[in-house]
Amino acid sequence: MSLIVCPHCGKQVSDTVERCIHCGGAFLKGEPKVSATDFNTLDKEIRKSLEVEFQKGYPKYVCPHAKQNALKCRRKFKVCTIISYVACVIFFLILILVKTKVLDIDSNDIKMMVVVLVALCAALVILISAACKISYKLKSKKLISQYLLYEKLFQVWLLHTNNIFKEVDFSDLSGKEKKYFENINTDLYT
Q1: What Rg value do the Cα atoms of the chain yield, rounded?
Q2: pLDDT digits over 154-178, tens only?
């Protein structure tokens, strides 16, 4: 038993099955079951030249470093979230210190002014942080979508032009993004 590539969806399946377990596509009787070469087993220079050849044919889908940039955006998103939480904690700590009279302030007016100033600063930090989080989240989604579309088109192109199968690395991506990748209809883009 060996793995072959489904001519319908491009995923690897056993050569003993009648239908693809991924897409349900039937294999015709007498249809040659060709096993594709694994992209990762090719020499680095050959992989690079194949990618350059693909990029020349489909220049508008090239998005260099999209995955890395999306992952940077996700890290920035997490930093903004942490900053928001820290601002909230600091605000509530100062509020508690003023209310429990640990901060010894004599005048009620000054106490109120301290609470209002701290609340305004915390609110400002939270608003700025929220705006950054939204921006990074949207940018990350766009970059990941570009990366996945590129990878899917490259995968299909490799399979159809060179009979080479390329496995996409989903280690840094979510299950939702993997499902999005599997549902990309490449007919719309070629």
Answers
A1: 27
A2: 988 888 888 888 888 888 888 898 8
Q: Which helix H or strand E contains 118, and what residues bound it?
A: helix 108-162
> Under a CB-based contact definition with an 8 Å cutoff, are residues 178 and 55 in contact?
no
* Sequence spans of domains, the chain: 1-35, 66-137
Contact 6, 20 (CB under 8 A): yes
Please write the tens of the pLDDT for every residue from 101-141: 666 666 777 777 777 777 788 788 888 888 888 888 888 88
Pair 5, 160: CB distance under 8 Å: no
* Spatial separation of the C-alpha atoms in residues 96 and 63, rounded to whole Å: 50
**Side-chain half-sphere exposure of 127, counting CA atoms within 13 A:** 6
**Contacts of residue 103, Cβ cutoff 8 Å, sequence gap at least 6:** 94, 97, 114
Residue type, 103: L
